[in-house]
Design goal:
The structure is a single chain. This protein has about 190 residues and is an alpha+beta fold. Helices cover about 20% and strands about 30% of the residues. It contains two helices and ten strands. Strands 1, 2, 3, 5 and 8 form a five-stranded mixed beta sheet that branches. Strands 4-10-9 form a three-stranded mixed beta sheet, with no helix packed on it. The protein has a two-stranded antiparallel ribbon with strand order 6-7. Bound molecules: dinuclear copper ion. Dinuclear copper ion binds near residues 153, 155, 156 and 161. The site of dinuclear copper ion has 7 residues, from loops.
C-alpha cells in the first residue's frame, strides 16, 4: 500500500523495471542495426541481391513447348560467347541433373518450377535463389574455375526433397561442346 500512495516517486522496483526496459530497447535496436549492416555488407561485398526481374510463366504447361520444353533444357551459347542455362525444377529433380557450363564467361541461369516452390544454390558461388511456380528465376554469374559443384534444392518441397540435387560441371570454354549450327542445348550427357 505504501507504494501506491507514494505514486509520484518511483520505487526502487519501478526504477529497476525501467532500467530493464531501456536495456531491452537498446539491445533490440543494436540487433536490428547489426542485421541491417549484415545485409548491406553482403549486398555490397558478396554481390547478393534479390532477383532483379519479374517474369511470369505458366508452370502447368512447361512440357508442352516454349522456352522450357525438353530440347531447350541445358546450356546454349549465344553468338557473343555468353551462356544461357535453362533448368526445370520438379519433384524431385532438376532437369538436366548435370549442368555443363563454360568457365570464365558470363552465364545467365533461367529456372522454372513445374510444380511447387523449390530453391537452388551452387556451392562456392553467390548463386542462391528460390524457384516459385509461375515465375522465371533469372540469376547471372560467372564461373571462374573449372570443376564440379553441387547444386542442391534448399527449399523443402516434399517427401523427396533431400534427394533433389543437381551437379554443375564447369569446363574450359574452348572445349565447350555446343554446336552453333545445330543450336541444341547441351548438358553433361552431351
Ligand atoms: Cu525441390 Cu526441395
Amino acid at each position: 500500500m505504501a507504494e501506491a500512495l507514494n505514486a509520484t516517486q518511483p520505487t526502487p522496483k519501478q526504477e529497476a523495471g525501467e532500467r530493464g526496459e531501456r536495456l531491452w530497447a537498446r539491445s533490440m535496436i543494436a540487433i536490428i542495426g547489426l542485421l541491417l549492416a549484415m545485409i548491406v555488407y553482403t549486398s555490397v561485398h558478396w554481390g547478393r541481391h534479390p532477383p532483379s526481374r519479374l517474369e511470369t510463366i505458366d508452370s502447368m504447361s512447361l512440357h508442352k513447348g516454349g522456352e522450357f520444353s525438353e530440347p531447350n533444357l541445358g546450356t546454349s551459347i549465344a553468338p557473343d560467347g555468353s551462356a544461357v542455362v535453362r533448368v526445370v525444377a520438379q519433384q524431385y529433380a532438376f532437369v538436366p541433373s548435370c549442368v555443363l557450363v563454360p568457365a570464365g564467361v558470363p552465364v545467365t541461369m533461367r529456372l522454372a518450377s513445374a510444380d511447387v516452390v523449390h530453391g537452388f544454390l551452387i556451392q562456392d558461388t553467390n548463386v542462391n535463389a528460390m524457384i516459385v511456380p509461375g515465375y522465371v528465376t533469372t540469376v547471372r554469374t560467372t564461373f571462374a574455375e573449372s570443376g564440379e559443384r553441387l547444386m542442391p534444392c534448399h527449399e523443402f518441397c516434399g517427401i523427396g526433397h533431400q534427394a533433389m540435387w543437381a551437379h554443375v560441371r564447369v569446363v574450359d570454354a574452348r572445349q565447350f561442346p555446343f554446336d552453333q549450327a545445330k543450336g541444341k542445348a547441351v548438358n553433361c550427357a552431351g
